[in-house]
TrEMBL record:
Residues 1-22 are annotated as: Disordered. Residues 22-89 form the HTH gntR-type domain. This is GntR family transcriptional regulator. CDD domains: WHTH_GntR.
Amino acid sequence: MNNEELQPLKKQPRAAKSNRSGTQDDVVYAHIFDVILEQRLAPGTKLSEEALGEIFGVSRTIIRRSLSRLAHEGVVLLRPNRGAVVASPSVEEARQIFYARRMVERAITELAVEHATTEQINELRQMVKDEQDSFSRGDRGAGIRLSGEFHLKLAEAAKNTPLISFQRSLVSQTSLIIAQYESGGRSHCSYDEHNELLDAIEARDTTKAVHLMMHHMDHIDSKLNLDEESASDDLHAVFSHLLQTKKKPGRSAANR
């Protein structure tokens, strides 16, 4: 199976109602965003509205709205008359995205040193612990997602709304690039580096915090090559955790 086409679909049971809150659009968007952060959805995968509608038990209208949001963030490409695919950044696009990510991370770190509250720092430390626990029990996908969410939560601590929006797009695009180009043993953001960064932020040491963040980005960048691809292009396999959740008495699938 290549990245452009999916095999003919077989009828699947509708996914049970998610434990996520929000509108149906929000739920679908969040699940797709999560599997991108977890590097489980391969760049170039065709996002069939029919398959996604089956998986989530919602209408194509809701699927289209969710895909449109993801396209706005640069992680989905909407192709006229050919449907949507997961973005597949070129080498040059990958370099530009990583450059932009470095600039945004620098600004976020500087502002987080200035504005992060004790409560936010404690929340970030808990995220690092959860990330470490996920990798320790072999749940690599959850660990990768938490690593990305750490950077999103840090952006919130910076208290700059445009930077939060930029960061959300850049973190998800970065995950696609790593899934497409990372070499070796498919490393992840180091929770030790995250903890050291939080120590510097808590100490209000801007110079050290920025240095640690740039070192952290260097570490991620050093793992990339131009040849390897990974992840999956099978939508039903990627969202199997939803399809395997059986409907229980008193709970129903999301309405169309």
